[in-house]
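Hi everyone, sorry if this is the wrong subforum. Our group has a chain we'd like a structural model of before ordering constructs, and none of us has done structure prediction before. Sequence below.
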Amino acid sequence: MGTNGAGLGELADDRPLLGRTSTAERVADILRTRIAEGYFQPGERLSEDGIGKALAVSRNTLREAFRLLTHERLLVHELNRGVFVRVLAVEDVEDIYRTRRLVECAVVRGLDGPPFPVSGLEQAVSRGERAAEQGLWKGVSTANIHFHRELVALAGSARTDELMRGVLAELRLAFHVVDDPRGLHEPYLVRNRQLLESLGSGDRDGTERMLAEYLDDSRERLVEVYAGLVAADGTASGPLS
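Answer:
Right subforum, don't worry. Here is the predicted structure as tokens:
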């Protein structure tokens, strides 16, 4: 279901995040978060007037925010039609996983000697397990994303963190199309715990091998499901959630 119209009242709750120095970057941050949460769905047209009024920002500021998110491949501008949340092509999903495998495995491989600082990973795993116990599967999905962001953060690189923030935000576009967070993420609750325990034990090489297999399995599972919902070029071949 789209969010244009009355549903934009919830977006207005984000207005205080803009503060006194409202900028396109801050608007982009808000919209990026909302897209990642599924508030704006893949294929949905974004209302320039509605969002501008909800956030009380100028048309120029909003258009610059749209431009930034288009550059990040979260939005797409269609001539004479407007701005839409992007629908990934199957090859986009495959490329995202290739990027993840390169970056995440390299981060683990490049860690200094143990003990490794795994407290952030522990918190993400615990949040995912608690969400699963409550049947909050979108919460499990969010915790899983946080787990992988915490993993990459072990590199201590702001550039790598920024890269993965964009990659994982883009990946969530595919998750929203599938709209089966339990099916996608429940199998990896145990595997996240295993990765955490392996890294916590100081087994860097074993963790890297485990992570590579994990990402390969995740890619194959998601691509299989996703390919049945969109055409190869990213257009809908079935009903999007």
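For your construct planning: The chain has a mean pLDDT of 89. The longest strand covers residues 75-78.
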